[in-house]
Amino acid sequence: MDKAQKEALKKKILAMCDHPTVAVLATVTEDNRPWARYMAPVADENLDFRMPSNADSRKVAHIKNNPKVHLTTGVTDMETAAAYIQVEGKAEILCDKASRHAFWDEHLMRFFSGPDDPNYCVIKIIPQSIEYQSVGPVPPEVWERD
């Protein structure tokens, strides 16, 4: 994939993920079993994904034990499905004040008392690769981190 193709693919991925959207995040349990749950990640211009979490959650414990994660998003219903992405990467748990304040949004008040809530943290996923799959019998386009 040349530079122009990679940039075009990045734009397609960002159009899908530059706002909170329902996704499935899979982690690995302490006994090496997959575990998935719904999340609402947001991608930044580097295609790093961030999402809020309770610091004492199972997913945070899983990530601390094994940072390899998988994220799937893009399809909300089969009637309007056009494309989806598969993200393979490593996760970090960000509990510092700057990260929590930078990601904070008022819609999180349903879950936390504010950006300084001691149980509020941010999960950051740094993708190694992202597959963009259009609906239909076509191979996925694959973005890989340099």
**Total number of domains:** 1
Rg: 16 Å
Question: Termini distance?
Answer: 12 Å
Average pLDDT level: 94
CATH fold naming: Pnp Oxidase, Chain A
- In the CATH hierarchy, what is the architecture at level 2? Roll
CATH superfamily grouping: Electron Transport, Fmn-binding Protein, Chain A
Summarize the structure in words.
It is a single chain. With 146 residues, the chain is of the alpha+beta class. It has one domain (3-144): Electron Transport, Fmn-binding Protein, Chain A (Pnp Oxidase, Chain A). 21% of the residues lie in helices and 39% in strands. It has helices spanning 3-17, 58-65, 97-103, and strands at residues 23-28, 34-39, 42-43, 49-54, 68-73, 83-94, 120-134, 141-144. The model has no long low-confidence stretch (mean pLDDT 94).
Q: What keywords describe this structure?
A:
single chain, 146 residues, alpha+beta, Pnp Oxidase, Chain A, 3 helices, 8 strands, globular
Layout of helices and strands:
Blueprint: H1 3-17, E1 23-28, E2 34-39, E3 42-43, E4 49-54, H2 58-65, E5 68-73, E6 83-94, H3 97-103, E7 120-134, E8 141-144
How would you concisely characterize the structure shown here?
The protein is of the alpha+beta class. The protein has a single domain, classed as Electron Transport, Fmn-binding Protein, Chain A (Pnp Oxidase, Chain A), CATH 2.30.110. It is 21% helix and 39% strand.
